[in-house]
Design goal:
α1 packs antiparallel against α2 (51-76), α1 (11-45) packs across α5 (158-176) and α2 runs antiparallel to α3. This protein has a 6-stranded mixed beta sheet, with helices on both faces. Strands 2-1-3-4-5 form a 5-stranded parallel beta sheet, with helices on both faces. The protein has a two-stranded antiparallel sheet with strand order 9-10. It folds into 3 domains: 6-176, Butyryl-CoA Dehydrogenase, subunit A, domain 3 (Up-down Bundle); 185-318, Response regulator (Rossmann fold); 338-492, Reverse transcriptase/Diguanylate cyclase domain (Alpha-Beta Plaits, 2-Layer Sandwich). The chain has 494 residues and is of the alpha/beta class. β3 (236-240), α9 (248-258) and β4 (266-270) form a beta-alpha-beta unit. The chain has helices at residues 11-45, 51-76, 87-115, 121-148, 158-176, 185-188, 199-210, 222-231, 248-258, 275-283, 296-328, 338-354, 370-396, 419-435, 462-478, and strands at 191-195, 215-219, 236-240, 266-270, 288-291, 361-367, 402-407, 410-415, 437-440, 443-446, 449-455, 483-485, 490-492.
Length: 494
């Protein structure tokens, strides 16, 4: 049977195959610990005695992983080719690696038998999964031993051939990647704050990043870091966990009270490389984690990635804000458009039905003789009048009251005012409108407006309310314009 030995493939492809072989072992082996942890908690909840068996499974799994790691290093390292093993030695290696698996499977089966009637179905399935993972790990051991014997890649085995071909293709692709990182102008102009009590560490990080064109500041304790952020918010913080006054985790909490992770990304830096430390940093809002000693290439890659995410989010937010403005504002005047003002009216009417304290009034405005303005000064002159009128309304009608353009020369305002308050407001507003002069091409254009006012307690629906306001607007125009018509009141302009 023809064999494609590892040495017949490229070195890079062989390393990729070895990585995959190791991963195929480590993944199920580590998963055993996860399932053991889950069944241990389930047994505790049932007050069942099981400690010896669980300890045996854990210790066997630990022994298995340690033995595999040692065998992997010994048989795939730089001196592996010079170390020749006999068939008996490879058989012994296979036996030694499989022995802990027998314990894992055996003790799991014992626990299933002992507690089958006491455990829930899900826990029994977890035990069965431990056994399945152990057998999956056993297959990975066989593949590993075959590989280091030089028998893993079989020309007549489609799966093995595909594995080698895939490895070769991946290696070629990796070789084509440009490893130098090209920084765009946004990133080069970014401001990075390095926080570390060790001045040498600060200097090294600053030198590494400055060599790439990045601008950096340094702080040697928590209080000075807070002062630096207060003085000018940086684009990114590299934050050491251990500081002399405020520890890095507390400092991270402080930053997160004022800034979210998108506006102020933080990469934690620490010699602690355990899972708990890393997960704690991520939970508190760190965007990433760098273990010491810091690899320069990984440092730059993570810094650039964090900055790119920040600037991408900022550009995304600007786009969303722009789209929101386009969707909610009148393109010409810049005040709310018809859709927004009528949605607000529906909401106001719903709230008014729930409570009399939420009664309100509306005004529908119409610029008097607007067609004459367009005919005399053209559409540009008409647009200038509309813009000026809208600005006046927006100035006079402040939050929580709102105003919007509903079409042509018509505007609608929602006023959270009582009838008496609305009357006084309309008196002042019509005087403001009468005094307003629009200058267009050196010509002063004086305009007036008619309005119809309706109150929420007059009707049950927003449609009926706008109809009443429309009717009163029509009456105001019919009776001479430049006036506001209320229920039983007419307010005249100058």
């Amino acid at each position: 049977m023809d064999k494609l030995r590892p040495k017949e493939s490229s070195k890079g492809a062989e390393e990729i195959v070895l990585t995959q072989i190791k991963q195929d072992f480590i993944t199920p082996a580590n998963a055993i610990f996860d399932y053991v942890d889950m069944v241990e908690k389930a047994l505790h909840q049932k007050d069942l005695i099981f400690n010896d068996e669980i300890d045996q499974i854990k210790s066997s799994c630990t022994k298995l992983i340690n033995q595999y790691e040692e065998a992997f290093v010994e048989n795939t390292g730089v001196n592996a080719e010079s170390i020749k093993k006999s068939s008996e030695e490879y058989s012994e290696l296979r036996h030694n690696l499989r022995t802990p698996l027998n314990a894992i499977i055996g003790y799991s089966e014992i626990l299933i038998e002992d507690f089958e009637d006491s455990l829930e179905k899900g826990t029994i399935e977890d035990f069965e999964q431990i056994i399945n993972l152990a057998r999956e790990t056993e297959k990975a051991i066989e593949i590993f031993v075959d590989y280091i014997r030089g028998e893993s890649i079989n020309a007549n085995n489609d799966a093995s051939s595909n594995q080698l071909e895939s490895a070769e293709a991946l290696f070629k692709s990796l070789g084509d990647i440009e490893y130098s990182i090209i920084l765009d102008d946004d990133i080069k102009q970014s401001d990075i704050l390095i926080v570390d009590d060790n001045k040498t560490n600060c200097e090294v990080l600053q030198r590494r990043l400055s060599m790439q064109g990045l601008s950096c500041r340094t702080s040697y304790d928590g209080n000075s870091a807070i002062a630096e952020v207060f003085k000018k918010t940086p684009d990114l913080i590299l934050l050491d966990v251990i500081l002399p006054d405020i520890n890095g985790l507390e400092l991270l909490k402080t930053f997160r009270k004022e800034h979210n992770s998108e506006s102020l990304p933080v990469i934690m830096v620490s010699a602690f490389d355990d899972v708990d430390s890393i997960s704690k940093c991520i939970q508190l809002g760190a965007q990433d984690y760098l273990p010491k000693p810091i690899n320069g290439t990984i440092l730059l890659a993570k810094v650039v990635a964090a900055l790119e995410r920040k600037f991408w989010r900022e550009r995304e937010k600007k786009l969303v804000d722009k789209l929101h403005i386009q969707a909610t504002t009148d393109q010409l005047t810049g005040i709310y458009n018809r859709r927004v003002i009528f949605e607000a009216l529906d909401e106001a009417m719903d709230n008014s039905k729930k409570s009399k304290d939420r009664d309100f009034s509306i005004i529908i405005f119409d610029i008097d003789f607007f067609k004459k303005v367009n005919d005399t000064y053209g559409h540009a002159g008409g647009d200038a009048v509309l813009i000026s009128f809208a600005q006046l309304l927006q100035t006079e009608i402040s939050s929580p009251n709102i105003v919007g353009r509903i079409g042509g020369e018509e505007f609608l305002a929602i006023l959270y005012l009582s009838k008496d308050q609305a009357v006084e407001f309309c008196k002042k507003l019509i005087k403001k409108i009468n005094k307003n002069v629009v200058n267009f091409d050196g010509i002063d254009i004086k305009i007036t407006s008619s309005g119809g006012v309706a109150f929420s307690n007059e009707t049950k629906t927003s449609a009926d309310l706008t109809n009443k306001a429309d009717e009163r607007l029509y009456e105001a125009k019919k009776e001479g314009r430049n006036r506001f018509k209320l229920i039983d009141i007419e307010l005249l302009g100058d």
